[in-house]
Design goal:
Blueprint: H1 3-19, H2 40-65, H3 86-120, H4 122-127, H5 130-133, H6 137-147, E1 153-158, H7 163-167, E2 174-178, H8 191-199, E3 205-211, E4 214-220, E5 234-238
Antiparallel strand pairs: 1-2, 1-5, 2-3, 3-4
Helix pairs in contact: 1-3, 2-3
Domain PDZ: 103-213
Pfam families: Nas2_N (PF18265), PDZ_2 (PF13180)
Protein name: Probable 26S proteasome regulatory subunit p27
Amino acid sequence: MTVDDHDVTESSFNGLMQALNLDSNQFKEYDIESFHQLNFQQLSQLKTEIESQLTILFDLLRQKYNADMETKLVTIDGFPRSDIDVVSIRLIRVRIIRLRNDDKSIIHLLEQKMAEEFASRKDQVEEEPQEQQTSSPAADRQILTQRYTIPFARVSQIVPSGPAEKSGLKEGDQIILFDNDIHAVNNRKLAELVIRVRSKQDQNINVDIKRGDERINLVLKPTDKWDGQGLLGCRLVPI
């Protein structure tokens, strides 16, 4: 994309947001190179800001345009579909892709800074009493909750009496975090989730979901020891 193309796209996106009575100023563009100058706290705050924008845009795609990142925009003949707003969907998708790339860069930098911090404190930690080295499950849970906020899959169907229903999952639930480390950035269109489910049959898996405005943590145990098919008893679709 050339500079001129970028300016046109940015102007069109801002115009679309204004037409939808949304504040276009809340959707920002970022210079990835500047991320390296930020400290851990600043990166964390920026990550929260970006993921908030992503949540708004994903909801807008789904609720306003009945579309997602996989919705086909052309007919089998290669012409733009007439039953959806192709231009608006494309503008929103472009911004989502940019923000996702920014989010990935920030996560990578956060992981680097965490690794550096752990390495610098390694000797100190090894000398601490055992009770001080033990991490708090509540603290670990809080870190995960703050770090991951973007849903990447939706429960589209629940089979009665299956593992998913027994765990408390409901149709419409959106998965934010699966087994504490599969999230919106690394799930590879649910491929990683499928692999994890197969590898942890009959074992508990923590699942963080979004239900309405509420975030809920559930425990899911994949198993084939039930009357239905599959290990979960539900159907998941990418968001």
